[in-house]
Amino acid sequence: MVDDEVDRFFEVLADPTRRQVVRLLGEGPQRAGQLAVATGSSAPAMSRHLRILLSAEVITDERVPDDARLRVFRLRQEPVVAVQAWLDQVQAHWQEQLGAFKKHVERKETS
Amino acid sequence: MVDDEVDRFFEVLADPTRRQVVRLLGEGPQRAGQLAVATGSSAPAMSRHLRILLSAEVITDERVPDDARLRVFRLRQEPVVAVQAWLDQVQAHWQEQLGAFKKHVERKETS
DNA sequence: CCAATATTTAACCAGGGATGTAACTATTGG
DNA sequence: CCAATAGTTACATCCCTGGTTAAATATTGG
Predict the structure, then answer these.
(1) Is the CB atom of residue A29 positioned under 7 angstroms from any atom of strand C?
(2) B1 and A CB contact within 8 Å
(3) DSSP state of A2
(4) Average pLDDT per run of 10 along chain A, which is 111 residues long?
(5) Interface touch B10/A7, C-beta < 8 Å
(6) Per the confidence metrics, is the pTM higher than 0.90?
């Protein structure tokens, strides 16, 4: 029942700005403000995107101990892995065909 | 510039019915009507979903030679592969960390 | 305590996307 | 030629998402 995670991931990643955020966070944790400028979004817009990504559990947030105004966001790996698994499953029948083809070739080679 | 393909894939896969369609077509080609009943959608709704998936080049269509009223749809593998590559890239820094950890363990083991 | 910084919340608005119904096209089969 | 089948298109509607502006909250630094 990890399907939920996949569903939320796709729904939330429909937005190009949020895809960019995921991309950026893929390279490492970032602050909200940094993400805003990097994506060319206003602060309020970014705040909402982050809230959506949080509620979909695609990212996590932490307050910086030194400066509690700052908030850093981190990409969670679980949903990424879940989506990869989903795509693998979609590809399953191609893999099978590939397997069948391999067997076919092998049979030819050994004959 | 394969990023376009990824963008369209995510935008189009935001809809749960279309995700279902992709899932179903992952198991093999299907007709429009079959997909409609399988997903519990009306014929017009499915027709629209398929048109969207076609324009995003996620699927292809073929007319059946015997009965030209029928149309079968097939999942294209290219976008699936492209999205997998995208996710791999997002995961890149985790892989690095994993690599670093492995090296760390190896160093410990050999010492 | 005050000014500046970082981010969130609220209120509002415009556009897009999904759906159902009904009508239409194309094709098959008797 | 007509009835049935498969699918598409058009239209009206609804809702949801995303953006903006302005104000609020929280925290830091002088």
Answers:
(1) no
(2) no
(3) T
(4) 87 98 97 98 98 98 95 97 96 78 66 52
(5) no
(6) no
